[in-house]
Write a structure and sequence with these properties.
Elements (H helix, E strand, L loop, with lengths): L1 E6 L5 E5 L4 H10 L3 E2 L2 E4 L5 H12 L3 E4 L5 E4 L7 E2 L1 H4 L9 H8 L1 E5 L12 H9 L3 E5 L2 E5 L7 E3 L5 H12 L4 E5 L5 H12 L3 E3 L5 E5 L4 E2 L2 E3 L4 H13 L3 E5 L7 H9 L3 E4 L3 E5 L10 E2 L11 H9 L4 E5 L8 H7 L4 E5 L2 E5 L9 E2 L3 H13 L3 E5 L2 H4 L5 H7 L3 E6 L1
Parallel strand pairs: 2-17, 3-15, 4-16, 7-8, 11-12, 20-21, 24-25
Antiparallel strand pairs: 1-25, 1-26, 4-6, 5-6, 8-10, 9-10, 12-14, 13-14, 17-19, 18-19, 21-23, 22-23
Helix pairs in contact: 1-2, 1-7, 4-6, 5-6, 6-7, 8-10, 8-12, 10-12, 11-12
Bound molecules: uridine-diphosphate-2(N-acetylglucosaminyl) butyric acid.
Length: about 425
C-alpha cells in the first residue's frame, strides 16, 4: 500500500486546475442506467470511486467504454442482472445510487445494504421509504435490498432529513415514474442540480432542483446524451486551504466560485485575501498567519461537512481558538486524533472540537481514516516541521485526482512511495 511523504514548510504558490466533481460524476453515471441509447459523460475525474462505479455497471452487463481523457460512454441496453453485489458496495457506499435507476428502468434491483462507515452509521432508510411510497415492493434479505415494482407511481415525499444521495436516488426513480413526484426537504447541493441538469438533458421534466422542493413529472423514456460533469467544489476548497495554511498564494482554475460561498467567507475571516472571476478563485495569505475560525457544518448552502476536516487543520496552526461543530455525521473527527499526534491542541466534546492554534506542528507518522480526514492530514503535513508519512492513502485516491502532482506543481515537497 502506498504512502505519502510530505516535508512541510514551503509556502505554496501557483495555479491548479480543478477536476470534475466526484459526487456529481457518481450519480450521473448511475443515471445513465435510465437512458435509451448510449450516454457520454465528460470531465469525469480519474478516481478510485469512479472506477468502482464503472466496475459496478460492468458487472451488471452494461457496456462501458472509457477513453484516455476519461470520457465515459455507457450503454445499458446490454444489462443482464440488476444487482449491486456486497463486495463492491462495501468499498463504496455511493453504489446505493443504482437502486432508484434500476428499479425505475428495469422493475427490479438487488442492492447490497451498505454497512456502517468510518464517519457514521449512514443509514439508507429514506431512500428505501421513498421508493416504497412510490409503490415499490422492498424486502431486506441476507443483507440485500431486494426491490421490485411494475411502474413506480409519482407521489409527494417529505424527506425526514436532508440527504444528498437520497434526494438523487428518488429524483432518478421519479424521472421514469407514472405521474408527478414532489420531493420536499430536498438537498440543494450543486451536485443534485448537476444530476437534475443531466436528467433534463435526457428528456426528464424536473423543476426546482437547487431549492428544497423538487417536482418531477415522470416521462416514458429518457434518451442518452453527451454531458460534462461540473467542477469539484471540495477539491477546489481543499487547494485553497493548502494556500492559506502555508501562508502562500494559490489560484484554482476551472471552478465555480458561487458554489463555495460559505468556504470563501471562512477563508476571508481567517485573514486571506480572496479574489475570484467567473471560473477561478485565488487565496492570498502571504506573510500572514491564519486567524482561527469557527465552523458549523450543515446542508448546502451552509458550510459543507466535506470541508470541516480541512478547516480543523487550518485552526491547528492559526492564531487563536477555533470551534468546529459537526452536525451531519456523528463520527467525523478521526483526523483530530491524528493531528494531536502532530502536536495540535484539540479538545473534543461530543460533536464539537475546540482547537487552540499552536505556532508549529511537528511531523509524525499518521494514518488516513476517510477521504476528507486524509486531506486534512495532508494540509497539516504541509506546514509541519519535518517529514510526515501518511499511510492508508487509498482513501485520498478515492476523491483527489493526482493530488501529489497538483501539490508538487504548487511547490510542495511531496512524494508517493510504496510502503
Ligand atoms: N441519513 C439518514 N437516512 C438516510 C440517508 C441519510 O438518516 O436514508 C442521514 C445520514 O446518516 C447523515 C445525513 O442524513 O447523518 C446526511 O447524509 P447524506 O445522505 O446527505 O449523505 P450521503 O448522501 O451519504 C453525500 C456525499 C458525502 C457528503 C454528504 C453530505 C456522495 C456520494 N456523498 O453523502 O461525501 O459528505 O453527502 O454532504 O454524494 C465525501 O465526498 O467525502 C463524502 C462523504
Amino acid at each position: 500500500m502506498d504512502k505519502l511523504q510530505i516535508t512541510g514548510g514551503t509556502a505554496l504558490e501557483g495555479e491548479v486546475r480543478i477536476s470534475g466533481a466526484k459526487n456529481a460524476a457518481l450519480p450521473i453515471l448511475a443515471a445513465t442506467l435510465l437512458a435509451d441509447g448510449p450516454a457520454s459523460i465528460g470531465n469525469v475525474p480519474h478516481l478510485q470511486d469512479v472506477t468502482t462505479m464503472i466496475e459496478l455497471l460492468g458487472r451488471m452487463g452494461v457496456s462501458v467504454t472509457v477513453d484516455e481523457r476519461m470520457r465515459i460512454e455507457v450503454d445499458c441496453s446490454t444489462l443482464r442482472q440488476p444487482v449491486a453485489p456486497y463486495e463492491l458496495v462495501k468499498t463504496m457506499r455511493a453504489s446505493i445510487l443504482v437502486l432508484g435507476p434500476l428499479l425505475a428502468r428495469f422493475g427490479q434491483a438487488d442492492v447490497s445494504l451498505p454497512g456502517g462507515c468510518a464517519i457514521g452509521a449512514r443509514p439508507v432508510n429514506i431512500h428505501v421509504a421513498g421508493l416504497q411510497a412510490m409503490g415499490a415492493n422492498i424486502a431486506i434479505e441476507n443483507g440485500y435490498i431486494r426491490a421490485k415494482a411494475a411502474r413506480l407511481k409519482g407521489t409527494r415525499l417529505v424527506l425526514e432529513t436532508v440527504t444528498v444521495t437520497g434526494t438523487e436516488n428518488l429524483m432518478m426513480a421519479a424521472a421514469l415514474a407514472d405521474g408527478v413526484t414532489v420531493l420536499e426537504n430536498a438537498a440543494r447541493e450543486p451536485e443534485v442540480v448537476d444530476l437534475a441538469n443531466f436528467l433534463i438533458a435526457m428528456g426528464a421534466k424536473i423543476r426546482g432542483a437547487g431549492t428544497d422542493t423538487i417536482e418531477i413529472e415522470g416521462v416514458e423514456r429518457l434518451q442518452g446524451v453527451p454531458y460534462e460533469v461540473l467542477p469539484d467544489r471540495i477539491e477546489a476548497g481543499t487547494y485553497l486551504l493548502a494556500g492559506a495554511i502555508t501562508s502562500g498564494r494559490v489560484r484554482v482554475k476551472n471552478t465555480r466560485p458561487e458554489h463555495l460561498d460559505a468556504v470563501l467567507q471562512k477563508l476571508a475571516e481567517a485573514g486571506a485575501t480572496v479574489t475570484s472571476g467567473s471560473n477561478w478563485i485565488e487565496v492570498d495569505m502571504r506573510g500572514r498567519r491564519p486567524k482561527a475560525v469557527d465552523v458549523r457544518t450543515a446542508p448546502y448552502p451552509a458550510f459543507p461537512t466535506d470541508m470541516q476536516a480541512q478547516f480543523a487543520a487550518l485552526n491547528t496552526v492559526a492564531d487563536g481558538v477555533g470551534t468546529i461543530i459537526e452536525t451531519i455525521f456523528e463520527n467525523r473527527f478521526m483526523h483530530m486524533l491524528e493531528m494531536r499526534r502532530m502536536g495540535a491542541e484539540i479538545r473534543l466534546e461530543g460533536n464539537t472540537a475546540i482547537i487552540k492554534g499552536v505556532p508549529q506542528l511537528q511531523a509524525a507518522p499518521v494514518m488516513a481514516t476517510d477521504l476528507r480526514a486524509s486531506a486534512s492530514l495532508v494540509l497539516a503535513a504541509l506546514v509541519a516541521h519535518g517529514r510526515t508519512d501518511i499511510e492508508r492513502i487509498y482513501h485520498i485516491d478515492r476523491g483527489y485526482e493526482g493530488i501529489e502532482e497538483k501539490l508538487a506543481q504548487l511547490g510542495a515537497k511531496i512524494r508517493r512511495v510504496p510502503n
